[in-house]
Amino acid sequence: MLTVNRIQQAEEALKNTREKMNNRYRLGYHIMAPANWINDPNGLVQYKGEYHVFYQHHPYDENWGPMHWGHVKSKDLVHWEHLPIALAPGDACDSDGCFSGSAVDNNGELTLIYTGHNYTDKEKDIFYQNQNIAVSTDGATFEKVGENPVISHPPADSAHHFRDPKVWKHNDVWYMVLGNSTKENVGRVILYRSPDLRTWSYIGVLAQGNENLGFMWECPDFFELDGKHVLMISPQGIKKDGDLYNNLFQTGYLIGDYNYETNEFTHGSFNELDNGHDFYAVQTLLDEKGRRIAIGWMDMWESDMPTKEDGWCGALTLPREVTLGENDKVLMNPVEELNLLREIEHNTLTNVTSNSYLIETNEDLLEIKAVFDLTNCNAQSVGIKIRGINQEETVLTYHLDKQTLKLDCSKSGKVEDGVRNTILRANQELSLRIFLDRSSIEVFANEGQTTMTSRIYPTEDRLGIEVFADAEDVKIKELTYWKLKDIWK
Asked: Would you call 121 a catalytic residue per the annotation?
């Protein structure tokens, strides 16, 4: 009964904030909470034919606080419906937060597996963490089980960082990976096994870093992809290295081969998944079509978040299909269902030779496809500007000589640290697929060879889309844009 009351109170707080909220930067086709704070996506699962996404949520404030689980569902990965808050903290197993976790369909029982966060001295940030489960048969209301915590403490050789369970089934056995840290502050992922989701046995370390790979690996996800095994992680504490690891915290992957019998994961080096400003805590699900679909948090810890003054903060990325490219590179591309967002198509350029072309449009929800022919190209750089009516612009530039893609948001709300660069080896053709929302940009270059995700905060009305090159006679094979629908209206 206490849990029901806590959820009702949280829902009431959201309703009150929503009535006063400033909607200037509210997104048109991304997952957000109704109001106040969200961070990590949790519990991505397909249940009774519908996609469910949960998220870390503070329903009482636009800043991070005692974590609840917010909840949306969709039939098509495009049109999302808010459901009541799924988990509220305050029980003995999760006194100060229901932290990140995952969800599974256990023979019709939707099961959430999450970390309980418990302070022993909040002022000094001294805490302990455990793992818990909650169950539902209707996919909307959840009950924490009496056996909680199902894992009460971390292994003896680890630090107190012990969170973010990701659970899956293999050969009728449940497995769980957890983010963890050694006593020497080296990030790692550890593995547990269970026959029934209630009784768990510690198997050992799945993967461990070194002093260069951070002090804690958050939000692990482990899955098979085209015959390889992928471990996605969000390390904290990796130092910047040129154009690599420019965000405060990173999200990326290790890929290799795994043996369930010996718990041996032989893998290559760590690679970032997205090279924009705002991508963290990615989680995936395997859907009924056999696709591996990823969603991340479209923000970054300790970054400037202007929407806080509007009564909300945080959003999730578009769903992306994860595939394996050449040289075991993990690729991410928008799921095909996102075509359902398209309302009006403008096919403005086909095989045009130019060094600058402006298409005027004041639409704020857009998908853009631009294809440049780079064969016999005498330009050093080509790209696209999303322009405001005066000085504001978001600029995407490909430098042919350096083979780098540059995203510059410094004139659209990221004044400090507004630029990101990443390697992109585009020889014959540069293909850009760009999703613009009121306060975000997501770039997919050359079929997911590179993705760049950033929040932007324009204050001017939009002037339009400009394609440019630093030389005459650059061939633009295609420029098409679509006005996209607002799913929240």
From this structure: no
